[in-house]
What does this fold into?
Amino acid sequence: MDNLEESVDARKQSMGNLGESVDTLRQRVDLLEVSSQEKRKPWYRQPSNIVAIIALLVSIASTIYSQTARETLIKLSAFHNRSS
It folds into this structure.
């Protein structure tokens, strides 16, 4: 009788582990579906692309500003050197 009870307990435990495995697989499939749907979005609807474009624009703007400020300082320096 003990062997039968142990066998039943082992089978219940095995079924519990199987249920956990199925739940884990369902979660993975759900994540893959979400990821797949995100890849189908147009480039301008993906947040990572928007952040990258904003970073590029900030970089270009700061480069232009720095270059303009540098040229202005060079011109001012040349003007002061001529007038001295």
